[in-house]
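I am writing to request your help with a piece of structural work I have in hand. Here, with my thanks, is the record as I have it:
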Amino acid sequence: MTVKSNSFKIDTSKKFEIIDITSKINELIDIEEGIVSIFSRHSTSAIVVNENEKGLLQDFEFMLNNLVSDKFSYSHDRIDNNASSHLRSFLLSSSESLPVKNSRLDLGTWQSVFFVELDGPRRARTVTLTMVGE
């Protein structure tokens, strides 16, 4: 059993942005078979797995904006004015653990891995990969 790690940086250009990071993860996988944990080191971002279809991604943004509206005044806004971004991240996850087979993510036909920016634009967001396997 081997444990390896790697990381990469992402620059975002919008307040809300969904970036497909599947191919970048596959480039960095350094095990033949096992599990990779994909972790965002930021409290106003998320890692999610879903289908990379334009309409669905627009619906995802619409849903998050309606679940956590910017029209309210939140207590955290007194500190740094990004409470809605933090609240949206509570609904998502900062990580995913996924299977690896033949040195690639073993995803379903329509699945992709996304980095979700909730408080951009930001420079040098860090995604960390921890791989456990052979």
About this structure: The CA atoms of residues 67 and 88 lie 8 Å apart.
